[in-house]
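Just wondering, can you check both lines?
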Amino acid sequence: MNIGMFSDTYLPDINGVVVSLSMLENELERLGHNVYVFTTTKHISQPDKNNVFKLPSLPLITNKDYRMASVVSKKTEKVIHDLNIEIIHTHTEFLTWTFARRMADKYNIKMVHTYHTMWEDYTHYLPFHQLLGINRLKKLTRTYIKRCGSHSLALIAPTEKTRNYLVQICAFNREKIHVIPTGIDHERFRRRSYNETELSNLRALLGFRPDDRILLFVGRVAKEKSIDVLITGMKVLLESNPAFAMLIVGFGPAEEELMELAEKLGISNRVKFTGRVEYDRIGLYYNIGDAFVMASTSETQGITYIEAMAAGLPVIAKYDPCLEELIRDNENGVFFYENSAFHGAVLSVFNNTAFSERIGQMAQLTAEDYSIEQYGLRVENVYRSLLES
């Protein structure tokens, strides 16, 4: 098959959409398909990739890290025609999606859409959100989601939580939605993939002591990730155990604000920020952590949870329905239900070595169910069913 993937974000950016798309791209190519990525002009060309095509774009006024693509590009349109694209798979709801829809209509190409993001939790990024009000913006968001989904013959949701939202809130036909969790490359996260000297050197480079207990966050450093809950909880933890430290891996618009919070709480020497880390090195960072922590409730799946579990880390997470299919409380992870309960959940793991080890082992077994091979095959089946129909 000739498959066109459309996304506003792509490598070298690291976020859930990019990880999901690039994993799928690699696996579909391994299965023998031709995969072409259409994205915005921000993304840096990679010497070994000649399957990436860029739409003209401009940076958003409200966030320079993101760009608005042009919905007209004769050059890119010719590429799509010449490549004989058979399936268009969109990974965005914005202007790159609009261009993809135009191409699907013009050339009669079957269209699939993956719903990666709970956009109702991101309305604070939209201009005039204070003037219009969050409730009105949420209604507008649902209307736009319906518009995107109605143009696709199939929708992919990473979890039942996402499918239920699309059915109950957006009124899509349940039969149209395929629940397909993103798979990961397990070898990238297993400790055996790294030598101990390499890991010790990274810990030292980041300023950690050998006996520090590192609580690890990996992801976009943004308001909706609720990293402030983790930093505030760290203040309480350090009052009883100064060996705890926190490592925040990633970058985003809330980075400066969170650094200021750590400074205000007097714990900036125990909360470290890495900034952008290349995805090829991300496995190293998981393997210097002692536990993975997350307080976000805005995820559609949360690939970082699975990556952490593949590394054998105990996962300490605020309860969210999207995690019901992944985490069993006190078996392969630990939930906390209120922000104030974060420090207690951490202590429940670290005060019992046998419990901590068992959770890490069970987490690693659970992660095995989320293979990149199964991910690719299930998406491939969706494509085949559309082409055959």
